[in-house]
Each structure stands twice: as C-alpha cells, then as structure tokens.
Design brief:
Low-confidence stretches: none
Strand content: under 5%
Radius of gyration: 27 Å
Number of strands: 0
Helix content: over 70%
Structural class: mainly alpha
C-alpha cells in the first residue's frame, strides 16, 4: 500500500510533499505492526498459553479452545483437568464430535471404560465415517473384554480406511490374543507392508514361533 501511494503521489501536483507524508505514514504503520506482531508472538509462547489466552478473551464462545487445551492437559498427565475442559467444549457445542472422542480417550485412561465407550458411540453417531473413533472404541471394548465387538469396530475402521495400518495391527494383536494366528499373520503382514515396525516385529515372531 505504501509503495502504491508512493507511485501515485509522484504523478500528482505537490508530489514530493505527498511522498514525504506517505513515507512517514508507512514508517509509522510498519512500527505499529512490528509492535503488534511482537506482542502477538508473546501470546503464543506455547499451545497452552495460546488456548489460555483465547479462553480468557472469549470465555464461553470458542469450544475448540477448551477441547484443544483439554488434549494438552491429557498429554501432560492431567486427565481430570482434560475432562473438565471437554465437558465445557461439549456444553458449548453438543455436536462437537471430537470433544466426545477426546473425552472418551481420557475416560479410558482412568479406567472408566463404560463412559469411554458411551462417548465414542456419541462421537460415531455424529461422525460415522471416522476410522480413528472406531479404532478408539474398539480398543476400549477390547480392554473391557468385549472382543467380538472390538473386532467388529476394527473391521469397520479398515473398511473405511484400508490404508489405516494402525487398525490392522490392533486387529492382528487381538486375533493373536484369541489364538487366531493365521488371521493375525495376515493383519500383521498388511500393517508391516504399510511400514508399521511393531507389526513387522510381530510378524517375525510369528514366523519364528513353533507351528501347532
């Protein structure tokens, strides 16, 4: 804008005066923007500081701020604080499926499997084509001992995203746990082909194990 004003002023009467005024305005704008940029960078010292700032400035208006701060709290080892933030995100937007999914993860971490499965189910009702949520619910069902239901969720996730190799490894591990070694072998092989190192290791262990 300053460059445009500089060129424009040159074609006008008293152009030199206008150029000087334009240059002063441009310098003032640049200094102001530099100061504002410096202040804004200070807000984003880290993601937690950013979301704290957003929540402080817009309390009760930005559900993603509560949800993403909840994810950070969970990663920091504070699932209770994370769940509190997820609750707030859901209260602000009951259709925010990721908040249900993330709260389900926190519930699973503290052993509240039924509540985790309930949240995953709500998330899936809102977002039925999510392989990640199916994988998460499958893991919770597996941990609860509902193995057939877990297999169903893993299989649905694979149908939705055939290249989602983590699900092959999860289903293969469950097959191995239930002594279905041939099915486990196929899943580990697929996951290994996608570069899942744990699956490659599990595959080698199966190949080296005594055959029944």
């Amino acid at each position: 804008a300053a460059a445009w004003a500089w060129r424009k002023a040159g074609s006008l009467k008293h152009g030199r005066t206008l150029k000087a005024a334009g240059l002063s305005a441009a310098l003032l704008a640049a200094l102001s923007m530099s100061y504002l940029t410096f202040a804004q960078i200070g807000i984003w010292q880290n993601s937690l500081a950013l979301w704290n700032y957003v929540i402080e400035k817009e309390p009760g208006r930005v559900p993603i701020a509560y949800n993403d701060r909840g994810v950070l709290f969970d990663e920091m080892g504070h699932p209770d604080r994370a769940i509190d933030d997820y609750d707030k995100a859901i209260a602000l937007d009951p259709t925010f499926y990721m908040a249900y999914n993330d709260r389900g993860i926190a519930f699973k971490e503290i052993g509240l499997l039924d509540r985790a499965i309930e949240d995953y189910s709500i998330a899936l009702a809102l977002k039925p084509d999510s392989p990640e949520i199916l994988l998460n619910r499958g893991a919770a069902l597996e941990k609860k001992g509902e193995l057939n239901l877990a297999i169903d969720d893993y299989s649905k996730a694979i149908m939705l995203a055939p290249s989602f190799y983590v699900t092959y490894f999860a289903r293969g591990s469950l097959y191995l746990k239930t002594n279905k070694k041939s099915l486990a072998f196929l899943d580990f092989q697929k996951a290994c082909n996608f570069g899942e190192e744990d699956a490659c290791l599990a595959l080698r262990n199966l190949l080296n194990s005594p055959h029944e």
